[in-house]
Amino acid sequence: MGDLPVIFLSGHDGLDDRMRAYDAGGSDFISKPFVPEEALRKAGVAIRHNRRHAIAIADKHATSDTAMIAMTSLGETGVLLKFSRGALACRTLYSLAELAIESMGSYNIDCHIQLRSPTQILTLTPRGAASPLEESIIENSKARGRIFSFGNRLIINYDSVSLLVTNMPVADDDFCGRIRDHAATLAEAAEAAVENINLRTEAIIRANELRDLADTSRKAIEALRASYQEMQFAARLELEAMTDSIEGMYVFLG
């Protein structure tokens, strides 16, 4: 009844009567005696007004829901932007894995992550290093394709990254879909970050090799210089000895 327009028909036409009708939820007021055509017209107006009011309320709710979804999505996207910035600053696989787990935790989502480089394979969970069984689950899931779901779990695979979500919110289709997208985006960003770490590590190795080569070359040059100086000293001694010998011969031949 609360959604139906109510028109009061009354033999009283005072202000108090109309106020009581308004307080009771009335949409209009007709005093007696009344003309039936007027009552029908007012009923039509009340019904149209009530319909427009209901549509306005529904639109307001829809706008509010859309705004809430947009705000929620913006907040969730902010987590990914923060991860992307932080990931490119990571210097080690461990710091990158910790950041990924922390970022997914912002959605109240638990995940295991495996990062692979030419020199290291790291598998980390929210509780620390993965158990052999947890590692084997990821290892066996790598052959299932880029994205694979089983129960409330989701695995995302890239060349250097495997991300296992262990508590997908399957009861909430919208949130579950967003988490699937967020996890895929995070894994892709982590893949780029691993490549960045690999390039930095390789650059450091090459720099160390060049430094070692330069150090070896410097030592070789120093050794060669020392040997040359020794040869010069020996030659000078030999020359002095020969000079003394020749001068002695001239004195003897007098």
From TrEMBL:
<protein>
    <recommendedName>
        <fullName>Response regulatory domain-containing protein</fullName>
    </recommendedName>
</protein>
<dbReference type="InterPro" id="IPR011006">
    <property type="entry name" value="CheY-like_superfamily"/>
</dbReference>
<dbReference type="InterPro" id="IPR001789">
    <property type="entry name" value="Sig_transdc_resp-reg_receiver"/>
</dbReference>
<feature type="domain" description="Response regulatory">
    <location>
        <begin position="1"/>
        <end position="47"/>
    </location>
</feature>
<dbReference type="GO" id="GO:0000160">
    <property type="term" value="P:phosphorelay signal transduction system"/>
</dbReference>
